[in-house]
């Protein structure tokens, strides 16, 4: 709500055409209306993401969504910091990293170096997720269960799970298709809140990217997630 001080109250009464003040009042209403619209859109557009291990933007939203302007993030979680600085919508819309009409041609549509942003879907919104660096990684055993959360209950035609080759360094290298090996490929899942798939990372050790494609069933909508892990 807008609280006017005494001077502004007098100004409003004594100068009917005080455009500066009216402008300020309208600006506040415009911001409030915009916020409301984006909240409503966020709900209507709910889709999904990998949540365990967390995708890059889901993890940044989870850890910092309620404190995203905290400068301590720059030291504690620098890749999230650069992502929040680049575009906060990449985190508010953590469930919206998808493309439409790919027709299964994922490798043809998504260029090397842009895998984590789904080929820069939505322009530059998710581009910071492609940057190599010390992304927070969760520790996993070499055999683990991966979870995709589907808030919209789209269903899945399939999930495909890739893991980076041993020796790939996500802190310094951009991710390309040639860095990945397919480790799991599923059939259909009926619409539900979560889809799980068993992943076997073989003899890999240390830091890796688990790359997931979720092909939704309600339309040709393909999701792409980079998930940072450390294998024990
Ligand atoms: Cu969707």
TrEMBL record:
Keywords tagged on the record: Membrane, Monooxygenase, Oxidoreductase, Signal, Transmembrane, Transmembrane helix
Gene3D superfamilies, per database record: chitin-binding protein cbp21
The organism's place on the tree of life at top rank: Bacteria
Stretches that traverse the bilayer: 21-44
GO MF term (any one): monooxygenase activity
Domain Chitin-binding type-4: 47-229
InterPro entries: Cellulose/chitin-bd_N, GlcNAc_Chitin_IntDeg, Ig_E-set
Pfam families: LPMO_10
The protein's name in its UniProt record: Lytic polysaccharide monooxygenase
Classification of source organism: Bacteria, Bacillati, Actinomycetota, Actinomycetes, Pseudonocardiales
């Amino acid at each position: 709500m807008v609280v006017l001080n005494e001077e502004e109250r007098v100004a409003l009464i004594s100068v009917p055409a005080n455009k500066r003040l009216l402008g300020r009042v309208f600006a506040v209403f415009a911001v409030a209306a915009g916020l409301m619209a984006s909240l409503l859109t966020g709900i209507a557009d709910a889709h999904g993401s990998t949540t365990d291990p967390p995708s890059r933007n889901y993890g940044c939203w989870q850890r910092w969504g309620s404190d995203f302007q905290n400068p301590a993030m720059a030291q504690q979680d620098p890749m999230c910091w650069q992502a929040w600085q680049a575009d906060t919508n990449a985190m508010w819309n953590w469930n919206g990293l998808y493309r439409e009409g790919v027709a299964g041609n994922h490798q043809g549509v998504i260029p090397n170096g842009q895998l984590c942003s789904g080929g820069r879907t939505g322009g530059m919104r998710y581009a910071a997720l492609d940057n190599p660096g010390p992304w927070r990684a969760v520790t996993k055993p070499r055999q683990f269960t991966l979870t995709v959360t589907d808030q919209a209950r789209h269903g899945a035609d399939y999930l495909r799970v890739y893991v980076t080759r041993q020796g790939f360094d996500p802190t310094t290298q951009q991710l390309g298709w040639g860095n990945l090996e397919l480790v799991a490929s599923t059939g259909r899942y009926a619409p539900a809140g979560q889809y799980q798939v068993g992943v076997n990372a073989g003899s890999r050790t240390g830091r890796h990217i688990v790359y997931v494609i979720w092909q939704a069933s309600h339309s040709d909508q393909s999701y792409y997630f980079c998930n940072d892990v450390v294998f024990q």
